[in-house]
Each structure stands twice: as C-alpha cells, then as structure tokens.
## 1
Amino acid sequence: MALRLPRPSPRVWLALLLVALGAVLTLVEQRDVRAPGPVPTDSAGEPDFYLEGVTLTRFDAQGRPHQRLETPRLVHTPHDDTTRADTPRTRLLDDDGELWRASGRQGTLGPGGNPLVLSGAAHLESPGEGWQLNTETLNIDTDTNHAWSDSEARITQSSQRVRGDRLDVWFDDDRLQLTGNVRGFHPPEEQAP
C-alpha cells in the first residue's frame, strides 16, 4: 500500500513562488552594488577619506543652509587640509536669499571650506538678471560671497556678450566688474514697425 500525500493548494504554490522570486531579487540587488572606485592618489599625499555621490551643505550663523555643493566624488587630503571635487555643481545664497549657481570640471575647497576654486570651464549664473559667466578658473570666497577670476572671463546675457582679462563679482551687492582689455558686443534694439 502506497502512502499518497495531499496535493498542495494553489495558495501554497503562490507562496513558494513569491519566496523564490524574493530570493532571486535579493541576489540581483546585491550583485548590482558597485564597488568604490580606486583610492585616489595626489601630489598632496594619501587622502584620509573620499566620498562618492556627495551633497555637501554649509549653514550660516543662524543655522540656515546657504551653500550646497554636489559632486560624484569628494577627496580630502590631511597634509594640506584640502578637499577636491570632481565636476562640482554648487548653489550659493546671497544676503537677499537669491540663488547663484556655479560649476566646473574640478573644484577645490581650501582649509575650513574656503575658498572654493572651480577650474576647467568654470560657469556662474546670476539669479534674476539672466547673465552667465564662463572662465577657466573661478575663485569664490564663501564667507564674503565674492567671486573673482584672473583668467579671461566671458559674460553673456541674451544676445549681448562682454569679455575681460579679470573679473570680480560681489553676490550680496549684485555687482560685477570686468577689467583689462574689456570688449563687448551689444546689438541695437530692434525697432517696432
């Protein structure tokens, strides 16, 4: 006499199928985790830390966020107390709460987080006025909200273009100054027929 076991119900089969699916998804999820990149080397020495996928926020004296830097990779070297960022994008608030945006191919934060130096196609956008600045290296004093460039700077606003050998921008005063071999193109306004 053969012992016959009862056939499992469809609910049991469904539960077993869900458990198997969960196990497969768990394995896939663990395999997808990317290993960190190689430990960076630098002439300033070995880093004490590096972070990937970073959003760095600084707060003002009243505890309000007033600066944000986003980067896929951030490296700090203790020898010179410098932090380096790959393709950083930053947002800075002026005294009026207006948002200035800046970016570059590389970024460097000096000791204590100041100054921020954006290099390699550095870009700055003003709030409201719609002008944009492009230069090779842009220095930003994050304590005084003053930016400057000793390399050629090009400013564009709609169809107007101006360039100069040196640039200063004071965010809080909403003031910009170009000096040294300044040239501009200002097309005439179109007359209505």
## 2
Amino acid sequence: MNVLFVFCEGPHDAQFIGRLMQESKQYKSYDEKLKDYIQPLGPFFSRKFLSKSVDELRIGKPHFPLVPICAYETQDKKTLIFPISIGGMDKFTQAIDLIKEIENSFSTDVLETSGSAIKDFSILFIYDADSRGVDDTVRLFEERFKSHYDRISGLTNSTWMKQRNHTLSVFVFTDTLGETGVLEDLLLELFRNTNEILVRETEKHFSTYFPQPAANADEIAHNAKRKKGVLASCGQMETGNAGAALTVVVRDTNLLNGAFNFSDASTQWSRLLKHIDQAFI
C-alpha cells in the first residue's frame, strides 16, 4: 500500500482533486472511519483533531486542522490519495511542519516496527500559476522549501524528485494558454462544456455587478475571485447546491458529470492523472 499526500492551496482545490479522481473511474472514495484506517494513518489524523485546544477556539470562527478534505483509493486498493488544503501558497511554514510530521510518522522504521501495510509515501504540491507563471511558481516553491529539502535544486513542473525518504513533486495549474492563470480557468471551461448558456449569462451578471479592480491590482488575482463567484453561482442553480460554498459545488455539481475528456492526453486534468499514477514508479 502506498499513500500520496496532495497539498493544495485551498479547500475547493483539494475537492477538485477528489472530483477528478471520481470522474476518472480509476479511483473510488475511501469511506472508512478513522478507527478503521490502515495504521498509522488513523492515529496520525486523529492527533491532528485532538491537538486543537478548545480554549483557543473562537465561536463562529472555527480553525480546522490540516487534515484531508476527502480521501480516495485506486480500484486495486494499492494507493490512497489524501488531498489537503494548506491555506494558500504563502502558508509554507505550516506545510513544512506537516511534512515533518508525515516524515516522522511514516518513516521506514516506524512502518516496519508497526507492521504497517503502508510501504511508501509521496507528497505532491498543487499550485496556481497566477500572474507569476509556471517556472517562477516552481522557483518560489524551491526557494521557500530549500530549508527543509536539501535536494530540490533544479526541480521542474510535473516531475517527481527523490528526497530522503519519499518522492516530491509540484504541479502548476494554468489557463488554457498554458503559462499564467488559475484552476478556476479550467473549471469554467469544464462548466461551459456542460452548459455554455448558463456560464455565459452568469458571467454577464458578474461583469455588471462585480467590483472593478483597483488601479494597481493584480488582474489575474482579481479575475480569479470573480470566476469563483461565477462558478459558485452556476452550481447553486441546482436545488441541492443552493447556498453552497464553492467547495461543495465542486464536489456535487452535475455540471462536472462527464465534463472531463480523458481521451485527450493534452488536457491538464489528463496530465495530472498521469502524473499521480507515476508517483510510485
């Protein structure tokens, strides 16, 4: 058994990975209760919940631990996938802390001593290119994580690199032009594949009422927020999703049913699926 931890910027990004797994038919939801998880996964995630002090909580402002948004396994049950929301690319110190916990809990010695069925783990970071572009996003990752990883110099997008006790990779989402952009660009494309009229009319509404960017604003970042609104609004047209957050929309909307064309190997979702499949080769 192998375990892949997928570090995503936000909860709907992590949920997109889960939806991609589901739609590909190569994976199925891993619905076990924590107590029934393969050891030491159960205790590892349980400690994340128990480590939160009740005294530090604020009513109306819950602070969730870094635990998976969803869980999937391959059809042959040889690999588990855990997408986790880190809270943004700037939360790299929290990401490093989590990596250290994973390395300690899933070291070869620990796994062998406990007789765990888990043999290997990998970590995949998924980011938006934003206005930086793909190469600068990877370089920024390298700069921020070199304090922990001593062998990431020369890391490139969508390649696996061996570290001390696991493999590591970065995958960067872009728009359809392939250099800058965000996941929301791809989601809008997928929504259009299912209901182009709905997306077009919703975009018209947002172009009228959504605030215009400030004079020196990052245009891609501003438009990403507008696109989030368009996506959530489109998904909320389904009665089951009325009032739902984008995370729920991505998980449940019918607009993504059959929207992925997996026969086209050039799409980013097809490339991401292939990349995930290569995590333990």
## 3
Amino acid sequence: MNDVVRRFYNKLKDFNDIIINDILKSETSTKFVSDFNQFSEMIHGVLRTSIVSTEVNEETSESDADTHFLLSALRIVALNIDAYEQYHLDNTRTSLVIYRNVLVKEGFVANDQLESITIQEALENPKLAISFISPIAFSEDSLYRYDSVVTKKDVIRERISNVTPFITMHERIYQELILFNDKISFVISYEGKSVNSDEDTIYEDFYQFFNGIFPILDKTYRFSAISDQSNPHVYAEGELVLKAARIVKQNVDQYKKFIERRVKASTAEMKKLILFSDGFYAHTDLSVAVKYSSIMAKDSFKEAYATGRRFINPIGYIDDYANFGDIHSVNLSKFEDLELNQLAKVYERTQKKI
C-alpha cells in the first residue's frame, strides 16, 4: 500500500475513531459529519469511474484493488455515520449497529464477511468497540465467518499493511486534475468572453476536490526524499501529483478571476510545468503558459480547442533542455505529454542524481 492510499484509509479510520469514542464518552456531536460528507464526495469522485468489474475475485487486477479497497472502507464508514447520527438524535437506540468488513486472502468474499456490534455491546465492552475503529479487518483464515463475539475479539486482526499493494491512486488523481484543466480549455475555446460566471461551477467543484486531496498529498510528499524510499517510483509519482495539483489550482484561480471579469483575456493564462530529462530546470517548478487571448483568437473552435488542449496535462516533458530555446516563449511543438508513470521514471532518475 503506497503512502497516499494509506493516508486516505487513515482518514476514514479517523472518522470511525470519532464515532466510536464519542459513543463511549457519551459526547455525541454531528459537527464532523459535514466534513465526512465532503471527504466522501471528493474521494468517491476520484474512484467512481475506476472500477473495471464490480466483483472482487482471483482475477481482479492490482490496478483495481485499491479502488475496491477504499470504496469498501468508505461504504462501511458511511453506514457507521448514519447509525451515529440516529443515535445522536435518540441515545436510547442502543440496538443500532457499528460495522466493519473482513478481508480474507481471497478478497472480500461475501456479505457474511460484514460483521457488526450494537452500540449496547460497544458500551459494555469498550475494548471490543475500539477494535471496530478500523473499517476493514483482516483474517488469514480463508474460511472465516463471523459467528460470535469471541471471533470478533480473537480471530480478527488488523493486517492492512500486508494486503495487495496499491499502485494506481496517483494516476486516478492525476486524471481528475487533467479533467479540470480540460473543462477550462473547453469553455475558453467554445464560449470565450461570453462565459457566464453565474452558470459556471467548475471552480466550485475543483476547490471541493482540491481541499480534500491536497492536505493528504502535501503531508505525504512535501519533502523530496525519493532516493530514501523503499519504493522510489511510487514516491516520484506522488511528488509529481502534488506539483500537478498546485499548478491546476493556479489555472482554476485564474479561470475564476477571468469569468468574474477581474482579469482580461490578454492577461489570463493556462500554465503547465515542464519536466526535462535532467529534472525540473534549476530544480524549481518551471512552467510555460498560453494566454486565453491566444486560444480565443483562433479562427475556429477546433483550432482554439487544439491549442488549449496542449495545456490540459499539468506536466509536460522535454527530452533535451539544451535544444529547447527560450523557456519563456511558448513553443507548442517542443514539449510532449506523457503518462504519469512515464514522467515518474524520468523524475525518479533525475532525483537520484541529486
């Protein structure tokens, strides 16, 4: 499990932690529920289009494993939030239940892997209740079935670190960032100066997404330490996604100012970072940009959109800096757009030289 997936999962555990400990302390409050709803909407937005199959079995690829895992955890916490809210309104309803899912070596096998305790059981056995903070538990017993409190306490152990490694969350976040850039490019190309800020929600959707994802990325990849990582390639991906999130936020901020008529088309611009074969130039976040006016000046929507699309990928790549020329003059033929995995290979290699 890479660091960013672990942080997503830990965030879900934090919500469960509040639920269970508030119940045990008899101090329920629904102030955090809106935080969960925002987080849930954000993470579900990342995952919702990523599943190839709705079933998890021996044929499930590693590329789908992280999606299923986090969606399962999200579902469990959502159930627990619902029970918590009902209990907050009426604390005599101690028959309400708290859930967790049980993962065995074959995956999430069946619904009888979903086990629960009532709030009454939790109040009578706080130690047992605390074991439900993790929304997913792991059992080495492939034939495990929940059937008693004994199995809850003794058979189930948290072994999340040994579950199938997850390698695709970075790509999914990166694709979401590309999508926001693409929406901006489309609007500028198609509607131009006639865009109506009262009808546009691109920036609202982005800020909700960004506020959920950025603190996790920043905490995980704030300091460049690729050469010290056990999996430097995955860490390189994470650093690039963090840089991409920052540059897309700049693009969205600029777009918001433009549709609110606070900057002109001749000033507003879309940016992208440039990664060279020897790293980011001078090891800083160097970017190139295109003015909105340059996009809107094209004779047709097709030409305008083609220009804007050169900037939907947050990070571009140039193989040879020496032959690039003036970095401050945009030459759309010089940089190419690579998959995040390919960019990470370059970045990992350059960082190891430092």
